[in-house]
Amino acid sequence: MAKKSKTRLVNGVVSACIAAFFLLHASIGSVAGLVPLSTGLAWVVWIGAALAAAHVALCGATSALQLTDTVRPPSVNKKRHLALKWATGVALLVAAAVHVFVIRTVGAHDMLSNISGVFVIAALAAALAAHVCVGSKSLLKDLGVDRSYRAAVRVTACVCAAAFALAALAGFMVR
C-alpha cells in the first residue's frame, strides 16, 4: 500500500505542476498574441511536455494498481470514472497536438490571425478544464488535500478556460 500512496502522491505533485505550467503558458500565450515575445524560452515548453509524459506514465501505473487491487477491487462506477479520466486525457492530448501543429505551421504570433486559431485555443482550454473537472477528486486525494475543495478546483478550471478562450477571441478581434 505504501508504494501505491507514493505513486499517487508523485502523480498529484506532477499534476499540480502541469496545471501551473498550463496557467503560465496560457498567460504568456495571451500576451504573445498582442506583443511579440522572444523565442529564447521555448525550451520551457519541453519541460511541460516532459511533465505531461511523466503524468501519463504515472496515471498508467496508478490505473494498473487500481484495476488489479485484490483488497479493494474497483466497482463498475470506479472503472467508468477511470475510463472517463483517460478519455478526457486523450481529448486533451489531441487538442494539444492540434495546438502544436498550428503553432508550427502558422507561427505563434499569427495563430490568432484567423478564427480557427481561436477555436484551437478554446478547444484546448475546454479539454483541460474537462480533464481537471473529472480528475479533481483524485487530484485532491493524491495531494492529501480535503476533497471539499473539489468544487473550487472545478470552478477555477472552468473560469480559467473561459478567460483564455476570451483572451484568444480578443487577440483575434484586435488583429
Number of strands: 0
Number of domains: 1
End-to-end distance, in Å? 55 Å
Content of β-strand = under 5%
Q: How many distinct helices?
A: 5
Radius of gyration: 17 Å
Helix fraction bin:
over 70%
What is the N-to-C order of secondary-structure elements (H for helix, E for strand)?
Answer: HHHHH
- What's the average pLDDT? 88
List the keywords:
single chain, about 180 residues, mainly alpha, transmembrane
What's the short story on this structure?
With 175 residues, the protein is mostly helical. The protein has helices at 2-32, 43-67, 76-106, 115-143, 150-174.
Question: What does this 3D model show about the protein?
Answer:
The chain has one domain. With 175 residues, the chain is an all-alpha fold. α1 runs parallel beside α5 and α4 (115-143) runs antiparallel to α5 (150-174). The model has no long low-confidence stretch (mean pLDDT 88). It is built from 5 helices and no strands. It has helices spanning 2-32, 43-67, 76-106, 115-143, 150-174. InterPro entries: SQR/QFR_C/D.
Secondary-structure blueprint of this entry?
Blueprint: H1 2-32, H2 43-67, H3 76-106, H4 115-143, H5 150-174
Helix pairs in contact: 1-2, 1-4, 1-5, 3-4, 4-5
Keywords: Membrane, Transmembrane, Transmembrane helix
GO cellular component, one term: membrane
Protein name: Succinate dehydrogenase
